[in-house]
Design a protein that fits this description.
mainly alpha; two-stranded antiparallel sheet; 2 strands
């Protein structure tokens, strides 16, 4: 029987994720943006040319939500929609050069936040945590895939 007074890994992961989201929201607001807007910019830097639907799937939100966020980013000239050359009905999202300084700012905040969150972890322990989380992510992704196949 598990000791209910011992820290529970899944509860701790949830607590840490919630704290990360809360702190990231606060830091993004301090820079006049939202965490969701920052996530869109970072994702588009990794893989520009995505559709709003593809981006919504990655961010696990509804396409209409991404549409509104992209509208705000486009109004700030950070993102632009370009017609897909193969399908006129599809619009692809691309960063504009104006996004570069914002992304540099995001990187600075992320580096400082990462250092704050991992203070006291040796490089070896940090790597062990990363490897453990990657394994957990893989396990859960595989289980979700198997559950989808069974349905």
């Amino acid at each position: 029987m598990p000791d209910l007074h011992e820290p529970n890994l899944l509860i701790l992961l949830n607590d840490v994720a919630r704290l990360i989201r809360t702190q990231a929201d606060r830091r993004a607001r301090a820079h006049g943006m939202t965490r969701a807007q920052w996530m869109i910019l970072v994702r588009l830097r990794r893989c520009g040319g995505m559709t709003q639907r593809e981006l919504a799937e990655i961010l696990e939100v509804e396409p209409i939500t991404v549409g509104r966020l992209v509208d705000r980013l486009a109004a700030r000239a950070l993102v632009e929609r370009r017609a897909d050359p193969a399908d006129r009905r599809v619009w692809r999202l691309h960063l504009t050069p104006a996004a570069d300084p914002v992304l540099a700012e995001i990187d600075q905040v992320r580096i400082a936040f990462d250092a704050e969150a991992t203070a006291g972890l040796s490089p070896e322990r940090r790597q062990a945590v990363v490897e453990a989380l990657l394994l957990m992510k893989s396990n859960l992704s595989q289980a979700a895939g198997e559950a989808g196949e069974a349905a």
